[in-house]
Amino acid sequence: MIKTILFGSLLALPTLAAALPQSLLVPGGIASIAVGNAHSPAPKVFYQNQRVLVSQDNGQWRALVGIPLSAAPGMHQISIQQGSASQTAEFLVLDKHYPEQRLTISNKRMVDEMTPEDLKRIDAEKQLMAGVKATWTEQPVDTHFHAPVDGRLSSLFGLKRFFNNVPRQPHNGLDIAAPPGTAILAPAAGTVLATGNFFFNGNTVFVDHGQGLLSVYLHMTQIDVQRGQHVQPGDRLGSVGATGRVTGPHLHWIVYLNQETVDPALFIPADLPRLAARNKH
């Protein structure tokens, strides 16, 4: 067993290729770690017992590790398997303070007055989404994403959320506000894993991009794809709406890596300034 410690040059720096998401070593971020020469077969990489996406970049295999929002600051470890050989590598996760966001939801049934039937539905939906989230497809992955909707950046990833002063889970996606009916487009190639109407999420589409990289689109007014459909970058998935638990029309966009939610902004650094600038007008 060979052990390698990786830090210093990896700290919160973007990866070398524009096609890869930015590396940011904080909870909810991504660790981009060189794990072998691309002339050799791709190694298998694991983090917290979950397979990790491995992609080629500048003659190397790089692991893209989704860091949990709950991750403690300090050294974290991945396992790298190349044939019969194995080694470990460590990377340093830095602390990050996410600000609070307090929202008022007029429909109290969406906050703390759910009926027994609502609770049964919510539990069933959680189980369904857990199964979808665990999907692993062994294939090369295009990680060069584009923003899925042309709108205004309205809520950032990781915010500590309070609905009607009731604490809830941190914001696990990126919100982009846009008028109802605005087209939601696939940011990269993938396959539609599931679609449906969910209690909190409203009309939702799940897309598998391969190797545990999933993207999810919430609160849609209309869904224009179906399960099993292959989509290419720019294909229409549906349209912006206000279904589920919302305060107004927007897209709530989630990205998963190794079953962890990561900041979608790291996948669209070129688009982010345009979306954010619209908050000034």
Automatic annotation (TrEMBL):
Superkingdom classification of source: Bacteria
Segments forming domain M23ase beta-sheet core: 170-264
Stored CDD domains: M23_peptidase
Coiled coil (residue ranges): none
Signal sequence region: 1-19
Transmembrane domains' residue ranges: none
Signal among keywords: yes
InterPro entries: Cell_wall_metabolism_enzyme (IPR050570), Dup_hybrid_motif (IPR011055), M23ase_b-sheet_dom (IPR016047), Peptidase_M23_N (IPR040487)
Database matches in Pfam families: Peptidase_M23, Peptidase_M23_N
Keywords associated with the record: Signal
Any GO molecular function: metalloendopeptidase activity
Keyword Signal part of the UniProt annotation: yes
Record domain Peptidase family M23 N-terminal: where: 26-96
Name of the molecule in the record: Peptidoglycan DD-metalloendopeptidase family protein
